[in-house]
Amino acid sequence: MDANPAGLSSRFPRDPRMPRERNMKLTIGSLLLLLGLSSCLFAAPRDIQTDVCIYTATPSGILAAIAAKRAGQKVVIVEPGRWVGGMLGAGLKPMQDCPNYAATGGMTHKLLKSLGQPAAGPPLPTGKLSPLQIRDDFLALLEKHGVPVIYEHRISSCQKSGAKIETAIFDLAPFDALGVPIAEPTVRNHLQVRAKVFIDASYEGDLLAAAGCDYRVGREATTEFDEAAAGVRPVVQKTPIDPYRVAGDPSSGLLPLVEKDHGLPIGAADNHTQAYNYRYYTTADPDHRVTITPPTNYQVEDFELVGRYVAYLAATEKDPKRLRARLVGIWPGWMNSQEWNYQRASLISMAPLGISQDYAAGDYAAKARVWKAHQDYLRGLYTFMKSDARVPQSYREEISQLGLDDRFHPETAGWPHQLYIRVARRLQGRYVITAHDVYNRTQVDDPIGLAQYGIDTYPSRRIEVQDAERTWVANEGNMFVGGSRGPTNVPYAIPYRAITPQPEQCTNLLVSVCFSASHLGYASARMEPVFMIAGESAGIAAAHAIQEQQPVQQIDKQAYAAALHAAGQKLNWDPSVDPSSAGGAAKKLDFALLLEECDQDADDLVCAAEWNIGKPSFDWLFSFIDADNSGKIEEQEYASFQDYKAQHPRWRETIAPAK
């Protein structure tokens, strides 16, 4: 294990809920809750019997617990880490992935705009929200509703009677001092929980797997669900840099950080999945800066590809401001809302590629290895960027002043406690959410909430690409179909069947995060507001299954729908009545928006295939806009089309083919 750069002497450093930048006054009740929760860390009861057991204190799990508790059930949350709030407590902001606030309901509708906000005074803008305060707010919710959380326990196995889980067994496995899960548990089979209904609210789907439910990982072929953008995708960020250890010599092998193409055709299925990364904070303030040290296994040769990429950028980008922006994209990344995120426009950014699939359905040793690899990669990349001579001196000096910011994650030396696991397992449930749902091509009669977002995947691989011209390095798997508002700007329903397993596999399990979806369907639905909505609906369903003494697949549909309505869940969307946007003006229909919706290979042009994916049902319009018949829509052509529409209000009737 690496030395602790913050000099922490205890496995449980000072309470993160009491940072030095705030003077928070605890009530007696708050203090008792914190003491109670802390005691769970050290002496979790070995045997627990409850009505509903929720696995993980993600936002989805917390809302599931509160919903079940409100319905009169006894609940307990078992959390693998020492923290609550999942990604919302680790840097992601509540409203960042909510393009249409009007499509949210239930507890989620209020929480999205209240989490992290001060109790009095003007609200903070998104960029000012602190993940530490968001964790405090979730703790306050748990205290208010009397929901106990048992920390540092991860699922080991399930004991079943037929298709029913009788007991879930958990290992004691504390995260390390830098917030990374460990490979081997401290104590095996340390906790047993007997419950009537279980809810898997984890990002990994480890409970559903332990319960014997079938699941998906990786990418389906285009043919499996007739999804045009499924499977292996065309490469992006194709860059003319040499990928070999000895430049020009293929026999020397590929450099680290680039892999050989597996050779599968566009549209084929494979086991790869999109990149993960930290959403982390940096600062130059010496009062809060934590030095980023090299990992123990750091070797400069491991980042030679980065050096060659930097040299390429320096040689081709003559504008100093643009060059600096490209370097920022490598490390620290893309400034999202004051926290750093992956810069998908860069060939190389702040997270490794090609290893997420090892985490998705891997055992705990694999998960620990991949999680640590992300942390070590980020530390190594920083070390390289501030020291390699190919990086302009001005930028080396600039980033040498930066370190992790301990104000947001003080108990783990500035490292977020949660890696952004964008997708892992996906339940093979009774309904599979696909791209057809995202495009509003389906009808659902058992909605539990609404989702709306584009089909958003980060790159899966960085590969060697050869053609008749030369050898290149490129990324594969990156796309953002439809932008944040989605390809139709209309929400779609999440069915109850998608959060319930096949009845022959498990009758008392609900899955509110790793629900049943294709790779593309999940790429749209995988947002925290949707997980929160699904969590509350799962908690309500759990209560109904217990009260009715029925399997979760057989609860009374009408009674359940009435309960969801009573909870304020938004279950249906009527475009003729409901607002079509997030409450503000719709985005201007310019070329930048077209690229956001359609440009999958990042070449700043839109070909016919990209148009048909991003603009479904408008295939007849492509040839009209493509005035020079080049097979690509360019910026001037799209601008001319917008002018034509302004001059011809009935343009659609003129151009569209007769039906």
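Second entry:
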Amino acid sequence: MRQLKPSAIMVFIVLILQALTIEYAWSNETYQKPASLVGAKMEQRADALQLLQSDLFRQELNELVQQSKLGTDDASRDDDKIAIASFLSDFQQTHALIAKQKNPLGYFHYSSDAWLRQASPKTDQYDAQALMTLMTTKLGTFSNEDLYKVSYCLGWSLEMGQDFMLNLFKRLKSSDMLKKSDIVRLVTNYQLYKVYERILGTGNQVLSAENDKRYVIEPNLLIKTKSGVSLSAVVVRPKQDAIKRPAAFQFSIYADEAWHIKTAIHAAAHGYIGVIANTRGKRLSPDDIIPWEKDGEDATQVIDWITQQAWSDGRVAMYGGSYLGFTQWAAAKYMHPALKTIVPYAAANPMTGLPIENNIFITPNYQWAFHVTNNKTMDHSVYADRKYWDDVFENLYKSGRAFRDIDKVEGTPNPWFQKWLKHPDYDSYYQQMLPYKNDYKKINIPVLSITGYFDGGQISAIDFLKQHYQYNPKANHTLLIGPYSHGTAQGVPYSHHSNYQLDPVALEKDTEELTFQWFDYVLFNKPRPALLKDKVNYQLMGSNTWQHHPSLQKLNQEAQTFYLGTTQDQDAYYRLTSSKPSMLSFVAQTVDLADRSTTNNDAGMWPLIHKQLPKSNGLVFVTEPFTETMQLAGSITGHFSIAINKRDVDIGYNFYAISPEGEVVFLNYYIGRASYAHDMSVRKLLTPGKKTQVPIVNARMTAKLLPPGSRLVIVLDVNKNSNAQVNMGTGKDVSDETSADGKEPLEIKWFSDSKLMIPLKPWRLK
């Protein structure tokens, strides 16, 4: 339930609910739900708040904890262990667990609460004066960097916490009984909320006063651009400082004054002028809100404004994640001479991420347009009920209606999404937003891209890198990638992603600290960040090492070639064979696209680790067990050879590793539209019955150490589920197709000369 920065709230904000779906290996023992929860009305935020403040509910939780014998060993994540120790009033263990963390100040809320409750006659409360004294004493002694770390910890919203708890209460209320995993979720999130409820108001009051002593904070600047647009901005600089400094600049659609101040303070703590400007129409801007379209030219004019300020030394470095990664690339299209470097993390691109993935419109984050355009700041309410949106997408899918009817099914007009639906090609609409082809030749500044294997928008970040090198072979572009999600790619990783425990070295990445190290390296000739030893830096899962390579393209070429076998084994699996077939054959698959009682190509990404291969309607292709330790590192390339009875098809696959013991690890997934596989800007329909090659484009990267006896699995399928449009294959605009267009089932032949190059080589520890 940890609250994310606005940049992390962007694409895949639904990951804020990850804690609801983590899988643990507990017994099947179940427990009665608290009576207060059973009898509570759970329809709005106020209902959740009433339960959170109920003494009876607290008493029932205590009884549930005692009955289940809940302890810190019942949790996998350190955050949950700390929350359980705090709930149990085990102050010694709370402090000990916090002390073990790489960033103990990230748990300042828990440690402060523990100190105060230890000193109080009643361990469940403390007085206001004691809280004020503690905060004033502690915060006044912190360095600028430590004060920022505490501000990040205190950058939490009780209202968003109530929304989260409303969702959690709803889910648990609808279940018959509680499992041990449910009790962990309930207790840890309840305790997190109650700790923040006690300390947040006073903590932020003292924090604000302390920051005012150290910085000049200008929260309400309005920049008038040469094109007549007014843009809202926050500027923070060290107090009593006449030194001209470079600006660390973010350009954000996520208007949140408090977060902008925190972010800009962090830049100032590192010796930069912190500048956070909002896109047009946001916060104080009187103009219309326009996502995506004008950000490059507007950001460039803000850069121009920065260089004219008395505190500027004429240099600007941009950084930030998700949508803020997009705005950096949009600005780089114009290459203002003052722009010296960019550091986009988990960078978004509307064509290769959201709302489109490889020319396929997808539903995750459909509500984002409401989130950023409903008001001048952010409308968090649209993300308050994930089940509501899941039901919307499921209803649309099962109805068989045209994808263009999505807002009619939901009931609220979504004009921005409807506008994007009119642009299924990579046409001039997108080309004018971002660097396009030869525009990359002008981008001769150092670039650091950061993303994660489990970042849903990874393909955008890597596509920017590939395009940069394709059109500018001399580009200075560095990549860092590891086992991170969209959120943790932008910040500090957790000990676990789903039920996968990260290697210790993977926890060494702190994205903002790495960013400022990079800025120091580029602008002040300081040492290159230690993690960035080459152009491609990746954490090899399972090896506890970082690996380094001079080129992503060459890394992908260090591959073994596999073909599709056409004979099933006793498990009904086909073979991924390294031998080129001597005779052409195929595997036939029939998919009734009009039948919405079934799905195809559902991703098995959560939980990450499975006891067995998830069931699906796809075709399972598996390698022989490896006879030696192998390194899998890079993206799958190659092509599928297919023939269909229609004019188009959306291809998908799920990629897994199976350990010698049979444990199945989800690695990544892929979807792509055959008619755009050769050129995302021009649709070329297939000829029914004709064999054709469909290239794999923008496949996700992964990296994992595979011990002897391991196998790799691709579950190959046609994409048909509620997460995306269903391509009926008529050749019409897919947004207009309905299930009525699928009277004839799709028949697809997967030919044995399909060529998959998997980046796989024997492991040699250097």
